[in-house]
Every structure is written in structure tokens, then in C-alpha cells.
Amino acid sequence: MGWFTRKKAAVEEKPDLWTVCPACKAHVYKEEWQAALKVCPQCNYHERLACTERLALLADEDSFMEFDADIRPADPLKFSDAKGPYADKAQQTVEKLKLNESILTGGCKMNGRSVVLGIMDFRFLGGSLASGTGEKIFLAADYALRHKLPFIIFSASGGARMHEGILSLMQMAKTCAAIARLNEDGIPYISVMTDPTTGGVSASFAMVGDINIAEPKALIGFAGRRVIEQTIKQKLPDDFQTAEYLQEHGFVDHIVNRAEMKDFLCRVLRYWKEN
Amino acid sequence: MGWFTRKKAAVEEKPDLWTVCPACKAHVYKEEWQAALKVCPQCNYHERLACTERLALLADEDSFMEFDADIRPADPLKFSDAKGPYADKAQQTVEKLKLNESILTGGCKMNGRSVVLGIMDFRFLGGSLASGTGEKIFLAADYALRHKLPFIIFSASGGARMHEGILSLMQMAKTCAAIARLNEDGIPYISVMTDPTTGGVSASFAMVGDINIAEPKALIGFAGRRVIEQTIKQKLPDDFQTAEYLQEHGFVDHIVNRAEMKDFLCRVLRYWKEN
Amino acid sequence: MDLEFEKSLVELEQQMSELEGGSDNNQQLNSQVTQLKRKINSMRKKLYADLTPWQTVQVARHPERPVLRDYIEGVFSEFIELHGDRAFGDDKGIIGGFASIGRQRVMLIGHQKGKTTEENIACNFGMGNPDGYRKALRLMKLAEKYNLPVVSFIDTPGAYPGLEAEARGQAEAIARNLTEMARLEVPVVVLVTGEGGSGGALGIGVGNVVLMLSHAVYSVISPEGCASILWRDGSKAPEAAAALKITADALLELGVIDGIIEEPVGGAHRDHAATFDAVKTEISQQLARLKKMSARRLVEQRFKKFAMLGKFDNRKYAVHR
Amino acid sequence: MDLEFEKSLVELEQQMSELEGGSDNNQQLNSQVTQLKRKINSMRKKLYADLTPWQTVQVARHPERPVLRDYIEGVFSEFIELHGDRAFGDDKGIIGGFASIGRQRVMLIGHQKGKTTEENIACNFGMGNPDGYRKALRLMKLAEKYNLPVVSFIDTPGAYPGLEAEARGQAEAIARNLTEMARLEVPVVVLVTGEGGSGGALGIGVGNVVLMLSHAVYSVISPEGCASILWRDGSKAPEAAAALKITADALLELGVIDGIIEEPVGGAHRDHAATFDAVKTEISQQLARLKKMSARRLVEQRFKKFAMLGKFDNRKYAVHR
Ligand SMILES: [Zn+2]
Ligand SMILES: [Zn+2]
Q1: Helix/strand/coil percent split, chain A, to 5
Q2: Which of D140, D141, D172 to substitute to test the interface with A, most A CBs within 10 Å?
Q3: Closest by alpha carbon to D58, among D251, D226, D224?
Q4: pLDDT in tens, chain D (321 residues)
Q5: Taking a contact as any Cβ pair under 8 Å apart, which residues of chain D between 294 and 313 contact chain A?
Q6: Which fold has domain A49-274?
Q7: Residue of D179, D232, D251 lying closest to A166 (CB–CB)
Q8: Given an 8 Å threshold on Cβ–Cβ distance, is C171 in contact with B202?
Q9: What is the pTM of this model?
């Protein structure tokens, strides 16, 4: 948990000591908020995490070895929209976040056990799935396959990245093809859906885990709430597309609190008997 | 269709020339009723058939070779109920129907193509599934497997035969195990559900065809209508547990009229490419 | 709760508690109590050694009899419940998940009954819905991927007979399970702990080994149902229970089950701890034995086991065993 | 129905029909008509040779464009529809069944659109529900058992965005199909005939060969949707359509599709028969080619094909083809 403690000092320098919970509006000491791993002590809302924050909660200290860090957004369509070229937007995002794509992949140990991890970062263009994201997942799955290591993906995404057009869509098939090979070889693949996991990511690798795990109250769904309301012309239930709703409807095996996630994953992986 | 023409003469000798359709109460000339293969010209109700009648509609002339004709009801429990010993009841049924069990099995040609057939007969103790029935299905499936022939079962059954107790129940697992081997070897298994197909038969071999076919308006379901009404304390829809209802709910591929059944089966089997 | 046939025992027990409740603690009284206790024990032993099938049904349905949750606590050291059929819902009548029994890790599935009416309504009295059978199948397929044995605990009056259950394919769900379980490439150990009710039981019951607790029952139809059909009189359930051969002893003789786990005297509900011990020991041994078999042999052995049931050798019915 | 960009053509056509309608049938008139016809044809040819992406979208959505039912009649000599997902229902937005194309027998699946509003409501405008994707998967698995190639016709605005569809796992159903189609051991030929709308299209689109009609489109999001998000203005759909690279030519260049079936001049809706001929010829050829590959090679080839899309060689993005 090195990351969280390191960060504390920086927080204290700021004048505003309070975090307002986006879910229940409770005022929580920033320090307390950090100590609780950015989980609201009032309503158990799990705030979105940067991939590095998430990694700190999962990997044994100094055990992480990043894969394919140099993969950056490609611009296969030479895409431009009202705000200008995608290439510029991507470049700015890369520089701002010090992160090259919407997912961080690598190998690490979790309580001493080797695993391959993928952690999406919603800050990176809404955690969108694009060529680079798909390729990194594909390569990480390939590593897991070759080394017979469990593969775990933490999803956080609004869906496919429009700026790479159809090639983003194709990453859905590409990542699922990689998962299919793991299935064939009996290599565990565990999906953890965090807030939000929607669109093309929910409709590909995020939904086909051996075990589908979710963080509490995470938004999970295929179509957007507004689109659905426009289509069916009725209001949706309040808990619609929450992790809890998805569990009730049979798509989530377990909802796990952030603080217990690492241990839970390790407990689950003990049930895989390597042949 | 030898059987149907042969029968006509006998009918004419009887004084009552009319058949009353059990479904729509229409009065139909017996001769017409027979010519229409016991299908009501008014409402398309398909009357239950004896297995020999059904066979006549399916097998190319003189092509049928019966399997295991000597298998007769066993009495593993030495069962007796209010009406006396099961053994006696079974014996009477056998003598009355000139039929040894609730299913007729064998190999035959259909439009020149070799297949293995199982045809249940509702007259035989309600077409109930018992040890003999299960064994005959098992052996027929085994024949189909060894000779790489498609296997077709026409179901007509109220469910498992109580008089053979748990051994009847076990026939559900036994027959499905036989079907599972056909699946593994890529041998077609087609299920045709006729009126009625309920209880343990619907919950075993009848429901796991590569293709599930049904005759129009056949009653198909697991639990009995009365039991369900007692349980949920509400009236059931009129079309509940009909072939049409089952198709709407995703369990029946095709509803096929009796007159077209043989050709339909042959058309379907042309899509199987032997390896 | 006391069962009807235990009436004489209950009376003696009341006598005993009156004696024990007496304030004087003299030696004579003590010896009376001890005698009575011995008498009660020997009566109970005799009674339970010779239960009629209908009495066995009552024991199998005893509300204090351990339910799946109790076995999970008493027999298994870990249980990670896994939810959902990945298509429609998460049935409460059939549950499952990763579980550890001693050092062995398994996929546990089973019918869930409650102990109070409230609990029973929540889990549908242990009657599975199609989504329950489909969840069980999903978990068995996951067990296959992870090379984990499957342990299945059966305790159900039957599959749920409801409108929705029919509409969503109760028949299909059970039939599919029978078909898929037949070819599962991992060991499957089945234990009937209470009521083994018809297709609803068999739907998760195709095992390499099928065991029963000594006072459990397993039947093609409930005695009441059979009586009302064949006797046209529901009150003839005791006769039907006897005729149907639904007790562990009878089923062992018929070759339908492979072993009986003896319950403590007076039934599993009288001594949960002893029941758990016996269950744990037997299942562990079976798992250890099956672990040595290859996937192919497991499938073959399971297939043959069911092929034998209701077999006709040279066209004559043959009871195997 | 005439499309906006065909306005000038429509005017000329009106002129022509006025001329033709004239009662005098002299030679001068005849030659005028012939000239006009030639002019119209050459204009149409030019117009359609150079459609903008947004114009292509309009052609792809043309209400008279052949829909699946038309292809079934025009391209296939037999179709035996198979119904149901064996779990919940029988979706009308995605259908399938055994079909014959020439002498080749296949499993045909596809999105079903209607031509009238009524028909479209019945089949949900070609938007699949989870049960539709699950039915398609069931049929593909059956094709695998029967050793039949799969032919998939794509024409959908997208998967249905409804409450029930979400509750029953639209996302799961599509994801499952992508995973299972990746390992299917029979040839899979995919043809985008009209709209290839996002995940709803891809959900039955993982093929060994992916083809498009020349005026079909295939996109990660509808141009309108993209415009309203990235331009914050739905009317910028033409710009979005251009930016998204959704036409057959562009997709061929990106390596996403493997071939283009040329439509008759003026689009498939102008000449169904010619379209059917072209489709039949191309699919037959592809099937004949794929038939020669072993199951293993088919899986490997399909896997590599999708692995190539968005590939980074030595960590630099590489467009393959
Ligand atoms: Zn809060
Ligand atoms: Zn009628």
C-alpha cells in the first residue's frame, strides 16, 4: 500500500481538508478518505482509482514488472473532430497522466503468487478501449498463456474509443479471442468490474471471466442509461446497472470491497489446480 | 402409409361413422379422420398415435428392423398399489396392446436414408419411462453411435413410471448419458415431442435434441398444470405448455404437421455431414 | 420438534427432566435418572434401527435436520459462494461455490433449504428454478476448467413447479444438466442429505459416487403424490413410501447408491456435529479415491454406473450389485 | 424512396417518364429517351462511384435495400428456420437455420429487418436481444457438431438498448459470442449487407472471412451518435461519418474486411437480382475455399486475423494489409 501512504503528505499541504462523497455527499476528511482507500465510510461508495493507485493495492511490493509500456495511442484513421486532431488529444493525455494507454499491464506477485494483471484507468480518455488497449490485453493474455499464470483484468471504461473507429470495435473480438485461448488451456481469467464498466468493454472481456467480480455500486451495463430511457420511454429503476443489480440478474459472482480485493483474489486462485 | 389404409376397412364395419375431435368437438367422418392421419381438419389437433401407426408414417415400406422387442417391464420393486401388483398390470397391458414396453425402437430407412428410431406409445401405461424404456433407448442410441446413424425419438409420455420407483428416475440420467455420447461423436439426435411430453421425459431426452420438433398443440411441460396452479395460486394462460408456447419461449425449433414430418426430418438430416 | 412416532420417547424424556428438575440430589434419584437415560437411549436406538419408510420420510424432512448452510459451516473450512447463471438470475434454491474440505478443494453445489418459514420462502424451500440448475451447470463447467472435483448436496422436495419456471425451461435445464454431467471430466460426489425429490434432485445428482445419509430418502415422486395417484388417497402415503423403496438401505440394494453414511442415533438433527464428522470423513475418502482416476476413466465409470441401472442382460432384467 | 443526394437524377427520371408517357411514338422521341437514359445511367454511375460516407450511410439504410428475408429467397435454395435460445425465448431480431446455397449446406444466421414499420416493429428493426445472440450461438454450436460452415448476414443499427435486454445480459451475450466464435471449428463467412452497427454487429461477426457489400457501412458507433458526442451536434453526422471511416473501401484498406461485393449501379435496392447473384457467387467461392482447411487451421486463421487488427509491431502501430 505504498502509494496511499506516500500520497498523504501531499494532501495535507492543500488548504481544503475535506472530500465530498460524490454518491452520498457526506463530508469526509481527505486523510480519512485516503486511509479508507478512497471508499466513503458513510455509503461505501468506491471512488475511481488511477491504475497506479489500484496497482499499489494489489501487487506485492516491488514485484510489478510492466509489459508493453511503450504502446501509445495509434491514430489509424487520422481522426479529427470538432476539438481538433485525436493525435493531439492523445498526446496531451499521455503527457498529463504520465500514462501511455488506458490500461496498465504487467506481471506481479500477489501474496507471493505470480499473476498477470491488467488495470484500466478511466482518466485516460474515459478508459476507452482502442487498438493500444486491446493489443496490451492481448499480449498480457499471451504472456499468461505461455507462462501458465492467472490473468486478472480490472475494467474501468466507458466503452470503445470512437477516435479509432472500427479498429476499436475489433478490439472486442481480439481480446475475447485471447480469453478464449486461456479457457481452452485451463488458465484462470478473472474479471473485476469497477466503476464504470460499460459499452464495448462490458460486452467483451469484462463479462466473460471465470469469475466476474465487481466493486460495490459500480456502474455496469451495455447501453447508456439515456439511450435506454429514450428507447423504451420509461424511467429506469434506481439500482439499474449497478453491481448489485447485475449480481441479482446473474452476471456478477461476487461483490468485493476494495480493502478485501487482494485477499479475495488470492483465495479464489487457490482453487485452480495447475495440471 | 400401409397401416392407415389397412385400417380403413375395419372402421367401416362399425356402426358409428363419426369421430368427435377431442379438441374442437367437430364431427368428422372416421374415414376422413383416418385419411388425415388422425388430424382434425377443423382445428389441426393431432390425435395421439399408437407407435405402429406412427412407424407406418415414417419408415420406408418393409425397412423396419425392430430392436430389443423382448424387453418387457421388469418389476424391480415388487410393486403393488391399491389395484394390485404392478406385474399383473404390466402383463395385462402387454397382452392387450401386443406391445412389450412403452417405446418401440429399431432401425429403418426414411426416404432411403438409414436412421435409428424410437417411438413412444402413450397407451402403454401413459407412455411412462421405466427401466425397459430407458434400456431400449440406451441400446438404440448405442446402435446409432456404433453405426454412425442419426437417432430420432418421438416422445409421448406422462413422465417416469412410479411402479419402478427410483429406477424409473434413473432412466432420465441413463438416456441423457447416451445422448451425451452421441453429441461427443457428432451423431445427430433429433427429438420430436408429441402429445403429451411431460414430467421426467420432458426433463430428459425429449428436451435435448440437436433440433427439438413438436407436433402442433402437443402438451409439453415439466410439472402438471394442477400442481402449478396449486403452487402459484393463479390461473395459467390458455396456451400454457402447448408446443406453440414452448416455441415462443425458445425450446422448440419447429412445429411440424404430421403429414410433413417424414419429409421434414429427411430435409433436416441432409445438413449433417458425416466426417 | 418431536415426530409422531417418537411419542413414547418424548414421554420418558419428560419424566426424566422432571426427575432432574427435582431439588434433592440424592443418590437414589441419580441412579433413577441414569437408568431412565439408558432406557431412552436403547429405545431410541431400537426405534431408529427399524424406522418404517414413512417414518424415515419424516426424519428426512425434520425441520432441525442440518441444511446446506449447516454443512458448509460444519464440514467445510471455506466456502466462496459464486452467484448467477450468467443469463437470467441468481437462484436461491440452488447455490454453489468454491469450498474446502480438509485439504481438498472442490466446487460445492447444493439445494438450499431454510429452517424458518421466512428463510424457506427466501430459498424457495430448496426447490430449484431453471436458473438454479443453469448456475449449477456453469459452476460444474468452471470446476472442469479448474480441474476441481464437484461435490453435490441434494435436499429438495423437487424442482419448483411454477409458471415462470416452466416458461424458462425447467425441463430443459434439468435435461441439459443430466446430459452435461454425464461427460464431466472431473470427479463428482453426490450426497443425498435429506429429501431427494425426483428430477429436481437428479438434476444435480449424476455422480461417480452417490451417497445417502442413513435416514435420507430419494424417490421418483413424493409418497403423498404417489398415494394420491395410485391409491387415489393422499393419506395412503405410508403405503406408497413403503412400496416406492425410497430408503437408503433399499436404494443401496437396488444399486442406485454406492454408500450410506450412518447418522447418529436419533437422526442427524439430534447431533449435528457427529453428522458433520461422518460426512466429512466419507466425502474426503471418496475424493481421495476418485482423485487417482484419469478424466477419461471418470467419465467412463460414471457412464457405466448409470448404464447399469435398469439394465437387461440377455433381455432379462438384471439388478446389478 | 429517393435519397436526397439523388435529386438531380430523380428530376431527369421524371423527364424521361414524361417523354415515354407521350402518346406519339416517333423516332425522334425514341432517340431522346435513349439519350436521356444513357445520361441518367452515366450520372448514376458517377454519383455512386463517388458517394460520400454519409451518402453511403443513406444507401445502406435504404428501405428498399434487400433484407435478410430477401437474401434467403434470392441467394439460398432452402432455409429451415430453427427457433429459440433454449433458455428464454425466440428473438425476432436475429434469426437462423439450415440453409443451402447452390450445393453447399450451411448454418445461416443474421439480423432480420423488416420493410414496413409493422414488420420492423415485429423484428425490432434488426436489433438483437440477448436471446437472439444466444440463439445464434446455439446454432453455431450445432453447426460445429454437424460440421457445417456458418454464414452470418449482418444488418443492424446495433444491439437493442432496452431495460429487459440489459437485465438479461446484452453485454454478456455479445461477449460470450465473441469468445466462442473465436474457437469455432467450422468455417465462418460474414457479410455486412447494410448497417454494421457496433457490438450488435460484431456479436455475430467473428469470421474467417468478413465481406461487405460495396455500399454497406460498419462502424463502432452511428455517425449521429458520434457527432452528438464528439461534435456535440447531431447534425454533424456527415462529418462524423467521414471521420469514422465506415465505408467498405476504407475498411478494406484498414484490413478489417477481406473483400467487397460490388453492388449494381445505383445500389442494391435498384437491382435485387443482380445483388443476389453477386452475393451467391462470392459466398460460394469463399465456402469452397474454406472447406479445404482443417478445423485447426480455421481456428488459427481466424484467431490470427483478429490478432492482427490493432497490432503493434516492435511497439509501433502496424496496419496490416
Ligand atoms: Zn458516500
Ligand atoms: Zn378439432
Answers
A1: 40, 20, 35
A2: D172
A3: D224
A4: 788 888 888 888 888 888 877 666 677 888 888 888 899 999 999 999 999 999 999 999 999 999 999 999 999 999 999 999 999 999 999 999 999 999 999 999 999 999 999 999 999 999 999 999 999 999 999 999 999 999 999 999 999 999 999 999 999 999 999 999 999 999 999 999 999 999 999 999 999 999 999 999 999 999 999 999 999 998 999 999 999 999 999 999 999 999 999 999 999 999 999 999 999 999 999 999 999 999 999 999 999 999 999 999 877 888 765
A5: 302-303, 306-307, 309-312
A6: 2-enoyl-CoA Hydratase; Chain A, domain 1 (3.90.226)
A7: D251
A8: yes
A9: 0.96
